[in-house]
Write a structure and sequence with these properties.
about 90 residues, alpha+beta, Nucleoside Triphosphate Pyrophosphohydrolase, Nudix hydrolase domain-containing protein, NUDIX_hydrolase-like_dom_sf, NUDIX_hydrolase_dom
Amino acid sequence: MEIGESAAEGATRETWEEANAEVEILSPFAHLDIPLIGQTYIIFLAKLKKPHFSPGPESSECQLFAPEDIPFDSLSFSSMLVTLKLVRT
């Protein structure tokens, strides 16, 4: 989050920066703490406002997957692996 923005505003901004995607935040979904590396994540459920997205300046690629097609072995961040497994259950 940046100074002066809420967690939801930060999530919306990060989604734009990472995937050039405009989203509408629906609700909080999960809160993950990773004390070993001094990080905490607040994950939100959101929907795309438009069906357009592409890699942002901080991403090499982005893609949508059906839940059964998520390539869990290829994910870069363990926090996202945990979150996506929560979504599937």
